[in-house]
Amino acid sequence: MAVETDSIRDIYFNNNEFSENATITPSGGSSSVIKVIFDRPDETLGLGEAGITSHRPRIMVKTSDISSLAHGDSVVVNSTNYTIAEILRDGTGIAEIFLETN
């Protein structure tokens, strides 16, 4: 069971602090705007002694904001269109969503 409540999580999902707005559109549904923490970390994939570095964009969201989202749904962050590749819910009330560029 999570210790925090959504009102406590709102501290992090505040556009004056860490978050920004994103538009989410579930398949067959209507779009809505939610607050997300967007990140685009480098990820290095090993290939023997060599490696390939790529960027894997992701957003952190309150799970209460994404109850209807699924793999393949649309997300727009900073005017860039993405498709949801993976949703990781860890039971704390926060989900990590990995994105693919359209």
Characterise the protein shown here:
It is built from one helix and eight strands, in the order αββββββββ. It starts with 5 loop residues before the first helix and ends with a strand. The model has no long low-confidence stretch (mean pLDDT 87). Helix content is 4%, strand content 52%. The protein has one helix at 6-9; strands at 20-25, 32-39, 42-47, 50-55, 58-62, 74-77, 80-89, 94-101.
Total helical elements: 1
**SSE ordering:** HEEEEEEEE
Overall geometric form: globular
- Mean pLDDT metric: 87
DSSP helix fraction: under 10%
**Radius of gyration in whole Å, from Cα?**
15 Å
Summarize the main sheet. 6 strands, antiparallel, barrel
Uncertain stretches: none
Identify the strand order in the major beta sheet: 1-2-5-8-7-6
Quick summary of this structure?
With 102 residues, the chain is mainly β.
Supply the key terms.
single chain; 102 residues; mainly beta; six-stranded antiparallel β-barrel; two-stranded antiparallel ribbon; 1 helix; globular
Question: How do the helices and strands line up, and which of them pair or pack?
Answer:
Blueprint: H1 6-9, E1 20-25, E2 32-39, E3 42-47, E4 50-55, E5 58-62, E6 74-77, E7 80-89, E8 94-101
